[in-house]
Design a protein that fits this description.
This protein has 183 residues and is an alpha+beta fold. The protein has helices at 23-33, 61-70, 90-104, 146-158, and strands at 9-14, 17-20, 38-41, 54-59, 73-77, 108-111, 119-122, 133-138, 162-169, 172-178. It is built from four helices and ten strands. The protein starts with 8 loop residues before the first strand and ends in a 5-residue tail after the last strand.
Length: 183
C-alpha cells in the first residue's frame, strides 16, 4: 500500500468525474492494477471526430473507490466544489463490492452499459480479449419476472456473453448466470 502523494497516482475530480491526466499514470493503472477507465478527450490532430478519444482517462466510480481503498491514488479537486463522495447508498456500495470481488479474482472490469449491464468482465486486457460476462448488480430484495430473465438470456446469447446477476448478501458476493438455451 502506498502511503504518500509522491508514490500515488493523482486523480482529479471535475464536475463529479474522476480524471487521470498523466500518461505514465494511465499505463501504470492498466498494466499494474488492471484498471481500464475510458478515454474521454478529443484528439489534437482530429478534434471534430468522435470515434477515437484521447486523454484524460475517466475512471468508473467503482475504480476510484477500489484505488482509494488500496491506497494507490490521491484525489484533487478542480475547485468547482464537487468532492468525491462515492458510494453514498446501498446500491452504490454493492456495486463497489461486486467490482472489487471481480477485480480480486484477476479479471479486468469495465463499464457494461453498452450491453445492458453494470460491468463487462474480461479474462485479460480488453485490448486483447473480448469480454465473457455482462454483470448486473441486483439487490437481495429484487424480484424478476420470467420475461425479463428470458430477455436477459437472449440478449447475452445474441452478443455471445454470459449474463451474470450479482448480489451482495451479508457482505458476501453471490453470482448466478443466465444463458439462453433453445428447446
Amino acid at each position: 500500500m502506498q502511503n504518500n502523494e509522491h508514490d500515488q497516482i493523482q486523480v482529479e475530480v471535475s464536475a463529479g468525474r474522476a480524471l487521470v491526466w498523466d500518461l505514465e499514470d494511465l499505463k501504470t493503472l492498466r498494466t499494474k492494477h488492471r484498471i481500464i477507465g475510458a478515454m474521454v478527450g478529443s484528439l489534437e490532430a482530429q478534434p471534430l471526430q468522435n470515434i477515437f478519444y484521447g486523454m484524460p482517462l475517466a475512471l468508473l466510480p467503482e475504480e476510484v473507490s477500489l484505488l482509494q481503498k488500496q491506497g494507490l491514488i490521491y484525489i484533487t479537486n478542480t475547485g468547482d466544489g464537487a468532492g468525491w463522495n462515492y458510494p453514498q447508498n446501498a446500491k452504490e456500495r454493492d456495486r463497489c463490492t461486486v467490482f472489487e470481488y471481480l477485480w480480486t479474482k484477476g479479471y479486468y472490469v469495465t463499464c457494461g452499459t453498452k450491453f445492458g449491464g453494470d460491468f463487462l468482465v474480461y479474462p485479460g486486457d480488453p485490448a486483447r480479449y473480448h469480454s465473457h460476462y455482462v454483470v448486473t448488480v441486483v439487490q437481495e430484495s429484487d424480484t424478476f419476472d420470467p420475461r425479463s430473465l428470458v430477455a436477459t438470456g437472449r440478449l447475452g446469447s445474441n452478443v455471445k456473453k454470459t449474463q451474470v446477476k450479482a448480489c451482495v448478501s451479508n457482505g458476501s458476493v453471490q453470482l448466478w448466470s443466465v444463458q439462453w438455451a433453445a428447446i
